[in-house]
Specification:
13 helices; globular
């Protein structure tokens, strides 16, 4: 019985780390596609591929009555602002602040998640979780600092709210998904509805800008974007299952370790980057942070 209980506590942790790893892989794959097309086109194809994968298995994993539950509305609400609004806030932040400040301030996502988890879901923070979360955030910030803040630091004050807004939107979306799954514990349906709504929003915006539909072919990076969408869909499913089985205060900080995994994959698999003093320090912060959160359960 104790072994079963231990596995139950370990399952959301392993799923969260799997989600982080898959998200890191999808970022590298997406980067390959962006050599052939712009980010808006790539994002549209990626979301479309994710939605297609979810609908492909929906006849076997989704019951018709799911659509008539309050949870379905909440999942749709999540799709209205995540990932569409969060991604656009991040892109605007990169435009005004640059990638390094954006990545640094966006690392506050676990703090928002912890606050929402405690105040809205009644979850409990322990000292190891707090220390582990701070360590992972610190590692992400150090990692983001590799490129420096740049020479120009005179940004409009309001622009500093953009990466914070992106972090807030992502965290609130995860917490709302967790809350909705208390009523309908279907991680697959959660992803299906939210990504379908996101695709509709993305298509409307894409059409409103009078842009032609993306071209498909080897020279347009389509295959990379589709592959990234499939991987991202599995990543989100793992995240949703982790949220179903575990607590937000545990799951979200572990998923926030994804930038470190992206770096490690880029160094040892793709061989595009090298280990620096900052990246080594990030490893020394993030790994103990993950261990502390894991042992807290």
């Amino acid at each position: 019985m104790s072994e079963i209980t231990g596995l139950q506590h370990l399952a959301p942790i392993l799923l969260a780390l799997t989600s982080a790893m898959l998200f890191a892989v999808s970022i590298l794959v997406l980067h390959q596609g962006l050599r052939h097309a712009d980010s808006e086109t790539g994002s549209l194809i990626q979301i479309g591929a994710t939605v297609l994968c979810y609908w492909l298995f929906a006849p076997w994993l989704v019951e018709s009555w799911y659509w008539f539950t309050p949870a379905a509305l909440l999942f749709a609400l999540v799709g209205l602002f995540k990932p569409f609004l969060s991604a656009n806030a991040a892109l605007l932040s990169v435009h005004y602040l640059g990638p390094t400040p954006t990545s640094t301030l966006a690392s506050t996502s676990p703090l928002f998640a912890a606050a929402f988890g405690v105040f809205f879901l009644g979850e409990h923070l322990t000292l190891p979780i707090v220390l582990g979360t701070m360590a992972i955030m610190g590692g992400s910030i150090v990692l983001a600092q590799q490129g420096g803040w740049g020479r120009h630091t005179s940004w409009p004050l309001w622009a500093l709210s953009l990466p914070m807004a992106a972090a807030l939107i992502r965290s609130s979306g995860d917490v709302l998904t967790k809350f909705a799954m208390l009523d309908l514990p279907s991680p697959y349906f959660a992803g299906l509805v939210s990504f379908t709504v996101s695709l509709i929003i993305a298509l409307l915006v894409y059409g409103a800008r009078r842009r032609s539909l993306p071209k498909f072919g080897k020279d347009h990076g389509t295959g990379w974007f589709v592959l990234a969408g499939v991987i991202n869909g599995v990543s989100v499913y793992c995240l949703n299952v982790a949220l179903k089985l575990g607590e937000v205060v545990v799951v979200i900080p572990l998923v926030a370790a994804s930038p470190l995994l992206t770096l490690l994959l880029s160094v040892y698999l793709v061989r595009r980057e090298t280990i620096t003093r900052n990246s080594l320090l990030a490893v020394l912060l993030v790994v103990p942070g993950v261990i502390m959160i894991t042992l807290s359960r």
